[in-house]
Amino acid sequence: MFSKIRSLIFKLDPELAHSLAIKALKINSFPIKSIKKSDSLKTLIFGKELINPIGIAAGFDKNAEVYNSLFKLGFGFVEVGTVTPKSQYGNDKPRVFRLEEDEALINRLGFNNQGSEKIYSRISLNKPKGLLGINIGPNKNSENRLEDYILCFKKFHIIADYLTINISSPNTENLRDYHGQNQLNELLSAIVNEKNNLNSKTPIAVKVSPDIDDNNIDKIAETLIKYQIELVIVSNTTDRNRKNLININKLEKGGLSGKPIEDLSNLLINKFYKKLDNKVKIIGVGGIDSGKSAYDKIINGASLIQLYTGMVYQGPNIVNKITNELIDILNNNGFKNISEAIGSKN
Question: Does domain 2-341 have CATH number 3.40.50.620?
Answer without folding.
Answer: no
